[in-house]
Amino acid sequence: MKCANCKKPATEEYKPFCGQRCKDVDLHRWFSEGYVVESEEIPLDEDEG
Question: Is the dihedral of CA 7, 19, 1, 30 positive or negative?
Answer without folding.
Answer: negative
